[in-house]
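Worked problem 6 (solution included).
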Amino acid sequence: ETLRDRSKVQQLVSLFDPIVRAFDGIAGERVSMR
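Solution. The predicted structure is:
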């Protein structure tokens, strides 16, 4: 159970990582623009 959940979490993380990074980059650009 725990191992299966952990692998699921890793899959989710690998899926969301690029999205989070892109969002972070956009947010950083907006902040630096002010």
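Discussion: Residues 1-29 form one domain.
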